[in-house]
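quick one: adenosine-5'-triphosphate bound model?
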Amino acid sequence: GPRVLAIANQKGGVGKTTTAINLATALAACGKRVLIVDLDPQGNASTGVGLDWRRRGPTIYEALLGSTPLNDCVVDTPVPNMAIVPSSVDLSGAEVELVAAERRDTRLRAALHQERARWDYVLIDCPPALGLLTVNALVAADAVLVPLQAEFYALEGLSHLLRTIERVRRALNPALVLQGVVLTMYDRRNNLCDLVAKDVRAYLGDRVYRTVIPRNVRVSEAPSHGKPVLLYDLACAGAQAYVHLAGEMLRREEGA
Amino acid sequence: GPRVLAIANQKGGVGKTTTAINLATALAACGKRVLIVDLDPQGNASTGVGLDWRRRGPTIYEALLGSTPLNDCVVDTPVPNMAIVPSSVDLSGAEVELVAAERRDTRLRAALHQERARWDYVLIDCPPALGLLTVNALVAADAVLVPLQAEFYALEGLSHLLRTIERVRRALNPALVLQGVVLTMYDRRNNLCDLVAKDVRAYLGDRVYRTVIPRNVRVSEAPSHGKPVLLYDLACAGAQAYVHLAGEMLRREEGA
Ligand SMILES: Nc1ncnc2c1ncn2[C@@H]1O[C@H](COP(=O)(O)OP(=O)(O)OP(=O)(O)O)[C@@H](O)[C@H]1O
Ligand SMILES: Nc1ncnc2c1ncn2[C@@H]1O[C@H](COP(=O)(O)OP(=O)(O)OP(=O)(O)O)[C@@H](O)[C@H]1O
Ligand SMILES: [Mg+2]
Ligand SMILES: [Mg+2]
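yep, here:
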């Protein structure tokens, strides 16, 4: 079956969506069949790959509630080998609706289970919280990839995130591991970035990717064109960094 | 009673906490008595004013559940005239706990109601979501201040936020208004910022503050020293912008 990765960090604005879209695109460019699951009510991943997701048919919301098989929610993207299960504004109500429901933690895992054959990788873009949606992603995942902005508040939340991953591993998903931490929006001229990077590497060692994603304006321009930055401007530093990240990730996975 | 402002935006990392802390500090410097309420389970506002909030006594969690009067949760900060009700990691469980509870939307308003006399302003730092915690803030607030990063994804979420404010106004809090939108982390060299700023001003007119908060590394350094940037480096562009923002806000409020 596919390798399922949750792209998670409760700190907001650290590059989860940008990493989900562009890592998926780079993996697809290497010939892997990749499915993105947009589990964030904001729907940024859906917009970022060019979908006008608000007018669409079934979404991740229907798949979670079990009313539509996940297979029927999958939509192609402009990137060959890459598809997406789009978000829905109804997702922000799903937290409240699922609280009292049966099997509330394992719904995404069950929905993905039907999809096993078609994909090599599934990347789940998580909302900025450790609520029921992110727990569903951690239960469904084989591993967690943590985008981390090299800033003080982002570093502060890391230990809480690692404790949550550990709790889910013990209670609901014994196979769950930390795939790695990737530093994002890194500005070499800014001392703070170097300090945070040094701290994180001291804390987590080689679970921090060597590849660092630089702050690069082309990355933040790409979503307004509905394209991953790899399609918008492959030569820019941001796109190249995501290509390197995919390479490093595949080496880790295949070496594991 | 005090003027209660919710600092809200479901988009992550747009400067909600930074705006709550530094606007509060600037208002306190003008002689206003200001209370910050840290409604985010991440607790960044508590850390940003120098609190070691994980070892403390009662928090906003106890005040919301009604087990402790809000008055007993208030902690002084190093800034004269400014105090804070600290966050708690238990807050991320509060969403689930409050769903089935009585009066789940009005708990913060009820808790603040006891506090009327002591403060001129109450600033509520919201988590990056439109769940029960943010709804509590919108129900308790007189007005909403929306920090907005001049980026595509942040702009995309704005209409959803405005619709949510309107829904809360109609159903739960008829007095609620949009205080204004403040552009944050603005980089004048980046075309995207100008495009987004033009879009937002065309959409919302003078509900967008003239004061723009520039991207300024001193602002992101200040939290690691447990200080608002106004204390860390008052002369820097970021701190000065927050001083101007407070001035513009007071003129709007008093002119209203
Ligand atoms: N390497 C980069 N260089 C410049 N801008 C970036 C980079 N990565 C992401 N951004 C921009 O920073 C903002 C935050 O990134 P993104 O939305 O991917 O973070 P997120 O963690 O998914 O946010 P949320 O917590 O709201 O889901 C976006 O406007 C995005 O375009
Ligand atoms: N004007 C600025 N210049 C430079 N960095 C800034 C500025 N404002 C905020 N930051 C930094 O950007 C990051 C995001 O800001 P902040 O944490 O205040 O946003 P937030 O909206 O509260 O995030 P969340 O959605 O996680 O609650 C922080 O690391 C902060 O230090
Ligand atoms: Mg996102
Ligand atoms: Mg915050």
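The interface with chain B takes residues 10-14, 17, 41-42, 44, 47-48, 89, 92, 95-96, 99-100, 127-132, 149, 151-153, 156-157, 160, 190-192, 195, 217, 220-221, 223-224 of chain A (CB under 8 Å).
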